[in-house]
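Supplementary Methods S3. Complex input for the flavin-adenine dinucleotide-bound model.
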Amino acid sequence: MKVTDHIQQADKTLVSFEILPPLKGRDINSIYNHLNPLMEFKPAWINVTYHRSETAFKKRKDGSFEKVEVRKRPGTVGICAAIMNHYKVDAVPHIICGGFTMRETEDALIDLNFLGIDNVLALRGDAGKNEASFEPEPEGHRYAIDLLKQVANLNNGIYLDDDIRDGGKTKFCIGVAGYPEKHFEAPNLATDMQHLKDKVDAGAEYIMTQMFFDNSKFFSYVQMCRDNGIHIPIIPGLKPITSKKQLSVLPRIFNVDIPTELSSEILKCKTDEDCEKVGTEWLIQQSKELKAFGVPVLHYYTLGKPKVIWNVVKEVM
Ligand code: FAD
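Predicted complex, serialized as structure tokens:
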């Protein structure tokens, strides 16, 4: 079922979770062990992130180095199929431009369609580890909007090869990313907003946001979207702070502000366990306020912290 249908049919705030594929070498049980406790909250769907391959240099026996492309977290499509089969719940794969040619994307979309997956979150992806800025693949997409247009074309039966006539139409519901505190590369929020509006005009059906820790940023963002003619559902992405290190890492990587009230409480903590308690309480209050505001869904990035998310959702739902 499509994300938008879940939202339309809901009579209360929904909850959804996001997971990462496990590192190569681990099996599907690591996903089930992670998700099992969270399934008691009956999530509307589970998002599965996508991770591009990275260039690495492997030392040969003779001391020289070999350049290899390594995908540390493969398996997004298979994990989505396994989740749907195991839990009978919808899975939302992330698809990205980075590391993919358009033809590879088309083939991946055909696989997803054959598996009965109705949703994709269309993203650009970040620059590769050894790149200063994002570089598309030759024959790949530069921006998320270009990927989105490819999915929208497939929904209309338009394939890359124009000799495919009367091609089968897919029916993907397409989500896109939004940034309440602006994307780190955008010169300002207004420009970023225009690019978001372009994605909506090209067929995006809902927006899922980057994490934020100050709800007032989200509320202003929703208002700004509405003022700019964006009327599709906006789903807040939520993550707990669980260590002191994150006070510097999260702002640097995700361009998010951490409110002084939260950072000063975290700085007082003596152990990571104490930090987790503060982060859990903050996320509970954040979630309750968002729920009261009327968000359609509370989407939690569970990323290695399912117990913290369990404690939060237990209090909120
Ligand atoms: P875009 O919408 O393409 O925007 C990227 C930048 O380009 C922005 O600054 C935008 O303002 C600008 N821009 C857009 N269009 C134009 C244009 N036509 N001309 C000039 N500038 C333009 N990454 C992963 O690798 N895997 C994941 O699974 C993943 N999941 C994510 C889930 C969520 C909810 C979010 C918020 C992010 C996720 N990311 C993931 C990270 C994401 O890929 C990065 O934030 C990436 O840098 C931008 O992706 P985007 O889809 O927002 O890109």
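The radius of gyration is 20 Å. The first strand starts at residue 14 and ends at 19.
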